[in-house]
Amino acid sequence: KAGVTQTPRYLIKTRGQQVTLSCSPISGHRSVSWYQQTPGQGLQFLFEYFSETQRNKGNFPGRFSGRQFSNSRSEMNVSTLELGDSALYLCASSLGLAGVIRQETQYFGPGTRLLVL
Amino acid sequence: AQSVTQLDSQVPVFEEAPVELRCNYSSSVSVYLFWYVQYPNQGLQLLLKYLSGSTLVKGINGFEAEFNKSQTSFHLRKPSVHISDTAEYFCAVTLSGNTGKLIFGQGTTLQVKP
Fold first, then answer.
1. Do the Cβ atoms of A25 and A106 come closer than 8 Å?
2. Counting one residue from A and one from B, how many pairs have CB atoms under 8 Å apart?
3. Beta strands in chain A (DSSP E)
4. With a cut of 50, which residues of chain B have pLDDT below it?
5. Which of A111, B32, B50, B91 is deepest in the core (most CB within 10 A)?
6. b/e string for A69-79 if b means 16 or more Cβ within 10 A?
7. Minimum-distance CB partner of A43 among B45, B97, B104
8. Which residue among B44, B51, B99 places its CB closest to the CB of A94?
9. What is the pLDDT of residues B41-55, one digit of tens each?
10. CB B92 within 8 A of CB A37
11. Could you tell me which residue, A76 or B43, shows the higher pLDDT?
C-alpha cells in the first residue's frame, strides 16, 4: 500500500498570504490528523477529521482550518500567515474505527515544510 | 489534562552501547503509548506501541519499551545501538477512545558516535 502523501513538500510564502496544504491518507483510512512541528513548541495537534467531519481540535487560532473530502483526502488552510507559522506540517492517517484497538495507530506522511518570510 | 515528559533532550552514546530514552506521562484515564522516530527531513515512523496486555513491547529495529503503570513511564531501550539509529525520538500518548489526537513529548535526540 502507498503511504500517506503530502503536497507540496516545500513552500515559501510571505506574511499576510494564505496557504493550502494537501494530504492523501493510506487507502482505506478514514481519519486524518494534522500536526504542526516547530523547534520551540515541538509537535502540536491541530485537528482531526473523520468522515468529512472535524472530530477533534487543538488550541490553534481560527486562521487554521481544515476539511476532508468524501475520498478521505484532507486539506488544511492557514490564512493571514505570520512568521511564527513557519513549521513542518505533518499529516497522519488511521483507520479511525474507535474501539478497535489494533487499528488505532497513526501513520505519518513526510510533511510539508512551510517558510513564511 | 494529559502530558508527556521526555526527560532527556539529547542522549549521546557510543556505537554498540545500550541506550535508554526516558518517557513519563500524566493522565487520569487509560492511555495508549507510542514511540516514534524521525530521521532528518522526514516524517514520523512508528517504532512500537502499547495498547494493552504485556507491559514489555517489542518494536522495529531492535527497540523495546516497558510500560510501568505505577511509575507512569514508558522508557525505550535498545541493547546495542548503531550509527543509523541517530535520529530524534518522540514519545506520545493518546486517550483510549480518542485516538485521533496524539500528545507528544518534546523529543530526545539520540546521537550515536563511532
1. no
2. 66
3. 5-7, 10-13, 19-24, 31-38, 42-50, 53-57, 64-68, 74-78, 87-94, 107-108, 112-116
4. none
5. B91
6. eeebbbbbebe
7. B104
8. B99
9. 888 999 999 988 888
10. no
11. A76
